[in-house]
Design brief:
The protein is an alpha/beta fold and 276 residues long. It is 32% helix and 25% strand. The radius of gyration is 18 Å and the shape is globular.
Length: 276
């Protein structure tokens, strides 16, 4: 294995445990790697505004991936390598159909996220994202005109359902084949499943190649750590892919290494395994 020069991190269930916290050991290790010149970046469904504390406290501010591939962005400089939005007509159709099916819906734009009605999932997301939502009708967003994107255009829709009582997300995905549906879970509510819906142009394979070109690195010099279906591309493409102990089974089978779960400092242990 070549020397690792870049590490991509998923956030929820990887860097952060069920309570949305990281360990002091992980923080110290990341600061140490940063001083050694290792690039540290996020590859997550989270938006940048929900990762500011990770940029500031852990130094994860190199060019990375947000909105499940909808945005390739460098927090340290504000540079954007690629940005893809859901067309307003498409976001409108998805929201209306999701609401008819009784699904939970969050609307994400560059400044924050919006829900129409407060929900216990809203409160949990606000706690983890460290960002209070706007409570407002979606009408003002989905009526925006097509064309040049504003800071209110749709970067992502987050749809959710209680898997014990509802099974509509796959059906909705079949109805919108021109969108990317990236599935994930919420550690604190394991029965719930979520789909981040982003533009079909949000191609993680392409984004990984763009990031390699940007950093001028080979895939063998990259490490990626994740726990969910949406992390598979980066974990598979990286020279050293790590699955958390709380990962889905498919990711564990495909990873080069399986570490402990997020509750037991798995990301820190994976970094120690590779960097000593």
């Amino acid at each position: 294995m070549q020397q690792i020069k870049l590490v991509f991190f998923d956030v929820d269930g990887t860097l952060l445990d069920r309570q949305g916290n990281y360990s002091p050991e992980l923080q110290s290790k990341l600061i140490e790697l940063k001083t050694q010149g290792v690039k540290l970046a996020i590859a997550s469904g989270r938006p940048p505004f929900a990762c500011r504390f990770l940029f500031e406290q852990l130094g994860l501010d190199d060019m990375g991936l947000f909105y499940t591939g909808g945005l390739v962005y460098q927090p340290a400089t504000g540079n954007t390598l690629a940005a893809h939005y859901l067309p307003q007509s498409q976001s409108r159709q998805i929201i209306r159909q999701a609401q008819q099916l009784g699904l939970y819906v969050e609307y994400y734009h560059s400044q924050g996220f919006t829900v129409e009605q407060p929900h216990f999932i809203t409160a949990e997301h606000a706690r983890h994202l460290r960002c209070a939502p706007e409570i407002s009708s979606f009408d003002g967003y989905i009526s925006l005109p097509e064309g040049p994107q504003s800071d209110r255009h749709c970067s992502k829709l987050l749809l959710g359902e209680d898997g014990l009582n509802s099974h509509f997300l796959p059906e909705l995905e079949r109805q919108f084949p021109d969108c990317q549906f990236a599935y994930a879970s919420l550690p604190s509510y394991p029965n719930w499943r979520f789909a981040s819906v982003v533009s079909n142009f949000a191609d993680k394979q392409l984004a990984f190649s763009q990031l390699l070109d940007y950093y001028q690195l080979d895939a063998e010099q990259v490490m990626a750590i994740g726990d969910s279906q949406s992390d598979r591309v980066f974990v598979n493409q990286a020279g050293f892919g790590v699955a958390m102990g709380n990962s889905i089974e498919q990711l564990k089978r495909e990873a080069d290494y399986i570490t402990a779960d997020a509750e037991n400092n798995g990301a820190y242990k994976a970094l120690c395994h590779v960097f000593g």
